Amino acid sequence: MQARGGIDLGGTKIQAVVVDARNAVRGEARRPTPTKGGPQDVANAMSEAMADAAELAGVETDSLQGVGVGSPGAVDQATGEVSQARNLPGWEGTFGLGPQLSDALGTNVALGNDVDVATDGEFELGVGKPFDSLLGVFWGTGVGGGVILNGERWTGRGAAGEIGHMVVKENGRRCPCGRLGCMEAYAGRSAMEHKARREVEKGRKTSLFKIMEKRGRDRLTSGIWWRAVKHEDKLAIELIDQAIEAIATATASAVNLLDIEAVVIGGGLGTRFGEPYVKRIAKAMQPHLFSDDRPPKIEVAALGDLGGAIGASLLVAR
Hints:
Elements (H helix, E strand, L loop, with lengths): L2 E7 L3 E8 L4 E8 L6 H19 L9 E5 L2 E3 L4 E3 L10 E2 L1 H9 L3 E5 H12 L8 E6 L3 E7 L2 E2 L30 H4 L1 H13 L6 H7 L7 H9 L3 H25 L3 E5 H19 L11 E4 L6 H11 L1
Parallel strand pairs: 1-4, 4-8, 9-12, 12-13
Antiparallel strand pairs: 1-2, 2-3, 5-6, 6-7, 9-10, 10-11
Helix pairs in contact: 1-2, 3-10, 5-8, 7-9, 8-9
């Protein structure tokens, strides 16, 4: 079987897949993203997840055509180095992730930005196939964006698509990036957890952290937010509502600038909350759209939780 691997490196989980020549998933595995240590610990967990996925697919990692990796932070595709992946433990500097993984797995490793490869996956294999222009909005630990214009990925000078860092409120809430008023400060899972903890310190009541402890987690994962909202937790609902408004404001502004045909909402929170909440984002965008008589198509990412890893595997196919 001609096979290649894909790894999606996220703030809470590492997802690995092995796909065949037709992009069908033959094996998949996931590991929690380490919360302590540093880049080498993350690289080790990624290698282990890829080895698990390969074993389920019935292949060895060194027989793979290659492994594509979608990583947060600043990615140097030529050297395989990743810098300033601040949602990962101890990753303030630069680390040679590509060479480390290549040595561990015994095959070629290609790196790309995590949201860019997820957007590519939806464009080539998912809900983006009918369109020539597309905006991917991936709502997870942070909020990342990917842009397709005239059938080609738009990277600008290397940092295009950072929709999470569009300002939605002047002098607003502090973002994990250090700036004020970014959309991610209101919608990123990490920032939302920080806000929830501050509210609890002020005396607010919530079931979020009880659910976290019950499920043996050390972070408020997408599933915990979903369960808290389902049980009508007031703080969780309030923060998710704020996230929807922030995403809608930033996304509508991006649409006004680019006039793209479609928006794909993915990421851990985006896929977990799914169609009803994507419809809420679309409705909240409407008052901000300049061409409100022809809004873009708003879709949930079709490739789901595996989308980032499948999209990363396409790096090898090129």
